[in-house]
Amino acid sequence: MADGSRERKVRGRKIATDREQKERRWAKKRLRSNGAADASGSASSAGSGDAGDADGLMSPEEAAPDPFVRTDEIEALSDRITGWMAADQPVHLIGPTGAGKTALALAAAADRGRPVVWINGDEAVDTAALVGAHAGAERYEEDDQYVSGVRKHTEIVRERWVDNPLSVAAREGATLVYNEFSRSPPAAHNVLLSAFEEGILERPGKRGSERTIDVHPEFRAVLTSNTIEYAGVHRPQDALLDRTVGVHVGFYDEETEREIVAAHTDLDEERIERVVEATRAVREELDGDVVVGTRAAITAARGLVVFGSDDADDATLADVLADVLAPKVAGEDDLRGLRDRIESAIA
């Protein structure tokens, strides 16, 4: 019993260390973000009448996922993405959930060395959420004295406009990373057509010459979407699909998955190998019923740090994987069936 207690304390220290490392990484990112925002804000606002123009710009260092594993398979995918961006083509990453599309998109954007702008798609996204909108009004007064004893008092009200991610990226020549792109309504994306094809971005809420932005020649876009059979996913309009190239992101080879799990956990090499082996077996067993991504392997490995013995016996591993995948099934009977199929797959 005493030995088991010591083991639990060791695992507890590992978890605390992992959290401390994450907190330090996030603190560094916030520091870089504040510095980048200050620098880009002063540069952008000097010649612009818009308020908040630089909001959302990240430096490449801040945008880069941490940790990010680079194996031969990942490098080959990254080269395809950056290659298409070098050819001035918007890239659409498509694949199952948990396959690592977002990390790939951010890494490829950071590799360009240009600022990065992020947006996450959902049902509430509309054109204004992409290009910007009026955000109240600015009121100020002018008090002029033309001649002695004669004063002119003028109150001026000016509408305040705030650019949103697409406008910021198009104007600054940044890389737009549009995550979960297909979860936003297709009507919101009509503004992308002219931006991708003619290099002109329409801002419907603006008037006169400020209604359009000439898209910066270094502007690029990387979109990520789950495959169309997922709930809550819209099919983009064909006109937009014609203006993008699609790169399919499937599940990685076993070596790459081991490297990714190792980068995200403190588990020893032998148990990482067992977790990945088991996750891949369960993926094959549940194919077509439940999606078992690399993210599931990472979560299972973290579970073993807390619940597993040093041997990571099959029963404990089956329990952990059942907990990880339980949110994807409905009902007690389905959960029992899931546990049985997992146990059978990893035996």
Automatic annotation (TrEMBL):
Comp. bias intervals (Low complexity): 35-48
GO terms for cellular component: cytoplasm; gas vesicle
Protein location: Cytoplasm; Gas vesicle
Predominant location category: cytoplasm
Keywords (A to Z) from UniProt: ATP-binding, Cytoplasm, Gas vesicle, Hydrolase, Nucleotide-binding
InterPro entries reported in the protein's UniProt record: AAA+_ATPase, ATPase_dyneun-rel_AAA, CbbQ/NirQ/NorQ/GpvN, Gas-vesicle_GvpN, P-loop_NTPase
Catalyses which reaction(s): ATP + H2O = ADP + phosphate + H(+)
Annotated GO MF terms: ATP binding; hydrolase activity
Protein name: Gas vesicle protein GvpN
Source organism of the structure: Saliphagus infecundisoli
Gene coding for it: gvpN
